[in-house]
Design brief:
By secondary structure, the protein is mainly α. Helix content is about 80%, strand content about 0%. The mean pLDDT is about 85.
């Protein structure tokens, strides 16, 4: 009869070996993704600069003037290129990396836990991607338009650096990617007992007021139209969060 105490070290060694293999394969996948992204740097820069160039074209004040993003150091463009390639490379490699991590962790989960984790992850990825798209196509152009007009109203010529613009875009995208996770956050709060669907529905008016206050801070301009454009999707996400929380309660009661 085998001694269980002798099997534990062997099991732990096999477990760590499989983890090391998954990490090595993940790092290789990331390196390939970053390499491919760096290879198509021209396309990445075109996507990054598209909102800026589209907004800049609306202002006739720049006709005949050299107005573009500046670099203030010899390696600034190269470093931004590397940062951009790293971000995009991680995105490209993320399906492969997540598959490796899932293949390592899934055997330790029960069948119902696996389906729950997959559902939560899929929804989280969807909402984060939706937040990125909303920030890129809706908010960043509005923000750039407002900021350029603000500078011109005070007779300042906007001459921003490539690094400043890159940080501006990335920060905006991350903010809206995280904000769009609101439905999952609300569902998680209900699942661990911090709130109930009835409580969230009861506080709907307060939540909407808070959302419009938040929109006033993160909206690129103070006009009501822009603030409404920012607030309406968040209100919809709050309502979606109430619906998700009810589903979470039903699933927990059935379990």
């Amino acid at each position: 009869m085998p001694d269980p105490s002798q099997d534990k070290p062997r099991y732990l060694t096999e477990h760590l070996t499989e983890l090391r293999r998954a990490l090595i394969r993940s790092l290789i996948g990331i390196a390939v993704g970053v390499g491919l992204a760096f290879w198509r740097s021209d396309l990445l820069f075109a996507v990054l600069l598209r909102p800026f160039e589209a907004v800049q074209a609306r202002f006739p004040q720049f006709a005949g003037q050299v107005h573009s993003l500046q670099t203030l150091s010899p390696i600034e463009a190269f470093m931004i290129n590397m940062k951009l390639a790293t971000v995009v490379g991680l995105i490209l490699a993320s399906p492969f990396v997540l598959r490796e991590l899932w293949s390592f962790a899934s055997p330790a989960l029960k069948p119902n836990e696996r389906s729950g984790v997959l559902m939560v992850f899929s929804l989280g990825l969807f909402f984060f991607s939706a937040g990125l798209a909303f920030g890129y196509f809706a908010i960043i152009p509005l923000a750039l338009d407002f900021l350029i007009r603000y500078n011109l109203d005070y007779h300042f010529l906007p001459q921003w650096t490539l690094e400043e613009y890159f940080n501006f875009v990335v920060n905006f995208l991350l903010v809206f990617g995280c904000v769009f996770e609101l439905p999952l956050v609300l569902a998680a709060m209900v699942s661990i007992g911090l709130a109930t669907p009835a409580f969230l529905a009861q506080k709907r008016k307060h939540a909407i007021l808070g959302i419009f206050i938040l929109a006033a801070f993160i909206a690129p301009s103070a006009d009501p139209v822009t603030q409404t454009i920012v607030a309406v999707p968040l209100v919809f996400l709050y309502e979606l969060g109430i619906w998700f929380s009810r589903l979470a309660i039903r699933k927990r009661n059935k379990a």
